[in-house]
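Quick one: structure for this chain?
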Amino acid sequence: MTLSGPSRDATRAFVLVPWLKAAEYDARKSGRVFRSQEARLEEAVGLASAIHLLIVGTNVVQLLNVRPATLIGDGKVTELKGLFEELEVDLVIVDGHLSPVQQRNLEKAWNLKILDRTGLILEIFGERANTREGALQVELAHLNYQKSRLVRSWTHLERQRGGFGFLGGPGETQIEADRRVIQERIVKIEKQLDAVKQTRELHRKTRREVPYPIVALVGYTNAGKSTLFNRLTEADVFAENLLFATLDPTMRAVTLPSGRKMILSDTVGFISDLPTHLVAAFRATLEEVLEAEIIVHVRDASHEESDIQKADVEGVLSSLGLLGEKTIGLPRPLIEALNKIDAMEVEQREVVLNTASREPMTVAVSALSGEGVDELLKLIDSHVTDNGLPIKVRLGANEGEALAWLYDHGQVRGRQTDDEGVTQLDLILPEADLGRLEKKFPDLFARIVLPVRAAD
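Got it. Here's what it folds into:
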């Protein structure tokens, strides 16, 4: 299969999907979920497009077994070499894991640069990571990956501006690192990450003292999390139809229908077959999920393999101890947001709407149009717990500063103002803030009605 592209200046890439027939047979026999060839190819092209490569061709290579030296058979290697020359290919993307030996041998045979799935994901991460921690995590993952691939014959690979040296570029510095230099850099980055994580922990501690509950959006990459985040927060987070559009956690305060506040967190998209060391390296980007009181799983319900994507996401959540027997702490609500109902045909849309109506923890939404978003907020609101004391207090018309302070530090559940400007508030206030209130507004504190505590 060949594809045309808009520009000859872009890197011309060919996407190759190795398809092991035995693995498909075993999966079907055991009843495990298994992606179709078409879905695998579509995702691989999406990954390559995420770093703006010009895809000039694709191919699914059927494998009876894996060749230790070249992954695929010699005949296929020769056949593809002719095709690559005809299409003037600059780069081959292999949607699978290549050993250092396989990658080196294929590069020699085709005289082309090659990226396997791990290398491609690292390139995407390198381009998308915007925060200090994100950039450090990307570099750490890259160095650990590169450390096992230091081969003398690789010195023709040149470092590309803004990437990590896999794609190369004319006139740029060649990669000339050895294991000792890489290991020294890894140690340095790990120390820097420890410092960054300590800073993030201080930020989380500050948020706990507010305290607003954290609600984390999770989901398969390109499911529409960032678009939904923008819709809920009216923020301007980068949201584009690209895989891995978001890599760094973004957090915003959102007011719920009850008047209470929550902190909404947008996280990196999950993906199938993500190498284990990448999951470990990017665990910090999912730390906000570990802190979350509620998890909202955003699903692209219009995708033909939405159920398989759901299984991938839940697999990662389970590995983090958030689902199943390994759940960390108290079980937390998991809400499913069936997204992209605006992109569905009438019959599919009706099926999704009926599913959502039957499942109490499921909402059908369109992040693009806003349909169903109010219902989602109400569902979140109904599962947010009140961590604090319910109190009642009356404030005079001249106590505006105290009124604002209570709104900032508590969760106001009810408010009534009479003709004389006296306001009565019913709110939830963290016990830690009662002492602060007494010091800052002693006269007001004396008028607070506290709940009656049960006898010990």
